[in-house]
Amino acid sequence: MDEPHGTVEDRVPAAPRRAIQEPPHRLRRRVLTVLGIALALLLVAGAGLAYYGYQIQRALTSNLQHNAELPPDSSRPEPDAPPQDGRHAPVDVVLMGSDSRDLSNPDAGRSDTLMVAHLSGDRQTAYLISFPRDMYVEIPGYGQDKINAAFAYGGTALTVQTVESLLDTRMDHLAVVNFEGFIELTDAVGGITVDNEHAFSSHGYDYPEGPVELSGEKALWYVRERYSLPNGDFDRAENQRKVVQAIVAKGLSPQVIADPAAFTAFVSGIASHTAVDAALTDEVIRETALSLRLDGASDIVLLQAPVLGTDTTASGQSIDVVDFDQLAELGEAMSSDTMDEYVAKYPPE
Q1: pLDDT (tens digit per residue) in 49-100
Q2: Which end of the chain, N or C, is more open, meaning fewer C-beta atoms within 10 Å of its C-beta?
C-alpha cells in the first residue's frame, strides 16, 4: 500500500495550541460590550412589543362602544359561583347581528342573527351556538313568538333575557355587531375559505359545493342567502357560523398576529363594528384574550340550538319547534363547563 504523501512530521498531530489569554481588563470590556448589545436588542424588541400592544389597545379604546344594554339583575338567573380551584370560569357572550351601521344606539335597526359564544374554563375550546330566527319560544312579557321578535319588542335587553330564560343560564356579556361591517373583515385578513355544503347562487355569485374562497361582497351574500338553500334559515345560520369561525381563526392565526399592521387592522375592524355591555371593559377583553389557548379553527366548535323540526302556527307563521329537553341539557352544560360532554352526546351534524 502506498505511503501517504508528505513527511512523517507532516502526519504527526500537532501539539494543541495554548489558548491566548486576554488581559483581564480587555476580557471584561468584551463581555460588557456583548451584554450591552444584547440589552440594546432586548430594549428595542421590548419597545416594539410595547408599541404593538399600545396600538392594539388604542384600536379597542378608540373604536369599541360600551353601550349595549343587558337586562336588569332582578329578571336574570343568578350568576354561577366561581371555581374554587383557581381555574377560569367559562364565559358566555350573546352575539347579535344588526343591520344598523350606527351602533351609538344598539337597539336601532333590525336583528336576525343570534348566537352565543361559549368559552370553556380551560380556554382551549370556543363553542359558537346559533339560535335560528324562527325558533318559537316564550318571550318574557309578550308570550309565544319567534325569537327574533324579542329584539323588536325590547331591544338587546329583552333578547338576552329571552336567551337566559331558555337556557336557565346567566350570560356574562353582550356584543352587538354590524354584521355587514364584520363580514368586511374578510378583506382585512386576506380572504377566508369555508367548506360549503350546498351549492347555490346569489346576486351574481356562485358558491359550488366544497371549499369556497370568500371576501367582500361575495362573503356578504354567502351569509345572507337562505331562499336558495334546501333547509332555508337552518342552512343560512350554519353558513354564518362557518364564516365567523373562519374570520376569527384567520384573525388569530400566527401569520396575522405576527404582522402588527394586519392584526391591528383586524382588531380595529372588529371594534369599529361592535357595541358591547359596559362590564366588558378593555381590561376584561385584554385579560380574556391573553388567557386563550385556541390553536385554530378546529378549536371553534359550531353548534345549533336544538330544534325538533318545523311547523306552522294557527296564524300561518312558519316556525322552528324547539327541543326543550335537549335545550335544558345545553344550558346545564354551559353552566357546569361540560360542553365537551354535551358535544360528545350530540355531535354536530
Answers
A1: 566 677 778 888 889 999 999 999 999 999 988 887 778 999 999 999 988 8
A2: N
Task: Considering only residues 295 and 44, tell me which one the structure prediction assigns the higher pLDDT.
Answer: 295
Give the DSSP letter of residue 62. Answer: T
CB-based contacts of 266: which residues, under 8 Å, 6+ apart? 185, 188, 189, 251, 256
DSSP code per residue over 202-233? ETTEEE-SEEEEE-HHHHHHHHH--TTSTTTH
What local confidence, expressed as pLDDT, does residue 16 receive?
A: 41
Which amino acid, 179? F
Instruction: Give the CA-trace dihedral at 203, 206, 209, 215, to 10 degrees.
Output: -80
Output the nine-digit C-alpha cell for 318: 312558519
CA 98 and chain centroid, separation: 17
DSSP 123: S
Burial class (CB in 10 A: 0-12, 13-18, 19+), 161: buried
pLDDT given for residue 245 in this prediction? 93
Cell of 21: 489569554
**Cα–Cα–Cα angle for 298, 301, 307, nearest 5°?**
150
CA distance 193 to 198: 15
Domains, the chain, in order of start with CATH, read: 55-345 (3.40.630.190)
Cα separations in angstroms, 26 against 21, 22, 23, 30, 124: 10, 6, 5, 6, 52
Among 329, 330, 338, 273, CA closest to 113: 273
Q: At what angle do helices 24-61 and 282-291 cross, to 10 degrees?
A: 120
Q: Which helix (H) or strand (E) holds 234?
A: helix 233-251
What pLDDT was estimated at residue 56?
A: 78
Question: Crossing angle of helices 24-61/260-272, nearest 10°?
Answer: 20
Do the bridges between strand 91-98 and strand 173-178 make them parallel or antiparallel, or are there none, so unpaired? parallel
- Inter-residue contact 103 to 276 (CB < 8 Å): no
